[in-house]
Fold these 4 entries.
Entry 1:
Amino acid sequence: MDLFHSFFLGIVEGITEFLPISSTGHLILASSILKISQTEFVKTFEIFIQLGAIMAVVVLYFKRLTTDWDTIKKIIVAFIPTSIVGLFLYKFIKQYLIGNVSVVLWALGVVGLLFIIVEYVKSKNDERGVGNISYKQAFFIGVAQAFAVIPGVSRSGATIIGGLLLGVKRTEIVEFSFLLAVPTMVAAVGYDVLKNGSVISGDTILPLIVGFITSFVVAIFAIRWLIKFIQNNTFTGFGIYRIVVAIIFFLFLF
């Protein structure tokens, strides 16, 4: 992997981490296009640079993440299901799911269809604000997020669909999804580095730094754009996009 690859993948990560289209899935597809082999380092790189995008949330929502204790407690409740699933299925996920293009494409298509169906049957909810998510809703949003261990499902996509099905307003669940990403991805990156730190060496530090910084900067713009976009639009377009991408890659790669 050279610096161009790390820069390009950083852009892909920054754009897709918070859009409900699967950052991991797009990183795997982008790596396939660039002919980057799915080595252990590349898999770790694709996980590590997600931390750069997460730092964008920390910067933009720093006050809420450090002073809003009601929201913090709900984030902890939502984080529990994902942490349990991720911990017990880590080896299986890393060995059989990360880097599997077929899994990514099927997940992109199926979840894309779910978005279209959910938006079709759901009417717009009244605006309530992130503080009005109950602890019960937070827990089940966390259960929904646990499905995102499958590449292509999308962490934000799973939490958003879960929130919509629970009656949460679009703008509210998007913001909660941003906040929930912080402990989720910090834990994921930390655990992966702990398990696979040996793949990081002097020769790989620079690509990691470039990917991290790039994803951080791009994610700030992506977050701001999504907040404005969803105020007047549904997620149907993202569902259609996912299905189209899945079909195109199926046709060209298989």
Note: The chain has a mean pLDDT of 89.
Entry 2:
Amino acid sequence: MTNQLFTSIILGGALLTSGCATKKYVAKTTDPIRDHVNQVASQADQQGQKLDQQGQQIGQQGDELKKHGADIDQSKTDISANKERAMAADSRAGEAIQKSDQNTRALSELRQTVANLDDYKPSGTVAVPFAFNKDVLTAPAKEELDRLVADKTSLKRYFIAVEGFTDKTGTVQYNNALSKRRADAVVMYLVAKHDIPVYRIHEIGLGEEKPADEGKGRAANAKNRRVEVTFFSADPQVTARAQ
């Protein structure tokens, strides 16, 4: 009995000793692994935080790039609009220069015409009749004007005198305005139908002045309701025929 008890004690002590040794071995083996795992996990967390920060920075850069892109698009739009305005301004400037050149030439020709006025001779004249209180050209009146300027607008030195008149019916002020409208009708027809430059036409409305007939009847009034149109030229072939 004593021997068995002793044996059991020895075996128990051996087992206890063996168990303690195993725990120490396990702890010694696993602790470094656990520490390494914890270290790796900490590094992974740090890297994850860095990646999050980089992701945020990339997102901010993307927003800035979008903003810059919008600014660039707006700049392109502004540049295009400015270019169109500049082209329009250049076009208007070109038209203004062209008109200025035309006016300069016209003024030069007019000055030359006035300077050599004595050289101009009448080469044709018509009296265009108008109905009572009317300022509209009739078909026969247009035919008279067509014959007057036929084959003459190719001349280099000429002008046309247009004088409007009325009869004595009505006030002086009204007749002056009516005679001007009648003269305007003739000028508009010559310019629109025969392409005669306006600066070659000298126009005036004289109302009831300078009557063609001093009488007071209907026949006299009909003669006085007129526009006298005279073609003047200083071209040698025209003045020779006129003389």
Note: The helical segments are 2-115, 139-149, 172-194, 218-224, 236-242.
Entry 3:
Amino acid sequence: MRKAKLERKTKETQIKILLNIDGKGKSQIKTPIFLLNHLLEIFSFFGLFDLELFAKGDEFHHINEDIGIILGKVFKEALGDRKGIERFGFSYAPMGEALARCVVDISGRPALYFSSLGPKDLNFQIKDSKSKYSLLDFKSFLEGFCQHARITINVGLLQREDLHHQLEAIFKSLALALKEAVKINPLFKRRVPSTKGVLD
């Protein structure tokens, strides 16, 4: 089983996380950001990752960003030496009228690319009685994740209307892409999937 457990305590946030990459998609998630809870459940379910995550803190932005950071760290630790993995993964996922594409490379070179997003798109927010969330918030979360998991992530929104649907489509396509990328390919025979022989 490829799994890891981490705890992060700062003056701003307290987060505990347990991740099993070779799981069944079970999750227990409790954070003050209600929509992010739902999106992380989607990530767990469609990636077949078992995820336990508990977070609290003093400010929305800090909690959101720190959850991305610790999820990236625990993902990298759970993967270990990355020998035998497919390394690449991609997926399309629709949600209502929204359509998202995600392509990932577990390369050791962290980078995040969002296609076709301007300032107006990034700052548009979902607001309800319990939470708010925008594509800019999601981008901050995902930047923390990819930097600390050391993954290249390319996200494209091909059809857009409802922001909630856009975020769900992105999380589903990300989970499905990562599920493919972490699979063990028996033809690699425990080799690191790089012509260099290492993934830094």
Note: The chain has a mean pLDDT of 88.
Entry 4:
Amino acid sequence: MATETKKAQEGTERSTEEKLRILYELQTIDSDVDKIKILRGELPLEVQDLEDEIAGLQTRLSNLQDEMKNFETSIQNKKNEIVESQGLIKKYQEQQMNVRNNREYDSLSKEIEFQTLEIELSEKRIKEFSQQLEEKKKLEGESISLLEERTGDLEEKKKELNSIISETQKDEEDLKSKANQFEELIEPRLLTAYKRIRRNARNGLAVVPVERDACGGCFNKIPPQRQLDIKSRKKIIVCEYCGRILVDNEIMEEKETPE
């Protein structure tokens, strides 16, 4: 809390001109960091998308394999039921050889008929399960191929991204360290406003010069009297159209590095 109060007091003591110079210098540094991020392009997002897709494919493959196991289990269960029914048919046929009357014979015949139908039903289910199992195996093969393809793509994208990061990491770290030094020179409220404007601007520009009588951010014309106010550097002026902080063109050419 004491540190923030001290920073606020130091920021208040600086002239508006100094504040504008520091803000413009900070903007320049942040823009250089943005350029590094642009150099990386969409690679970080592409890597994330591929990782998400691979995770989805792995889940799909796992589910397919679980379904295949269930079908295999169901097929084996039906085969066991067929063996059981065949055993019962054999048993009933043997019993028919020793029946005492037609009633017992007819009863055993019905049991044999029932078990025969059970065998037919089990064979039908085996055929259905086998067909579904084959379809799942086909999907499994396609999923494995796609997973291998996407894994290869991910490795290539990661190599490409890591290569760019290794080439630019030191520059980015140096720039961020420099930016932190400038942020320490800006009062908290003004720094918060700068970051908010920068976050909302499509090109990340929160501080722009007046060029050709227009805002360097949105290119809307700036009235002559307002341009004189900006050149006087007596107060911080924002563009009435886009809300960016405006500085005169000379600050762009005279920017200084703080001690």
Note: The helical segments are 2-13, 16-40, 43-96, 102-183, 188-200, 224-232, 249-254.
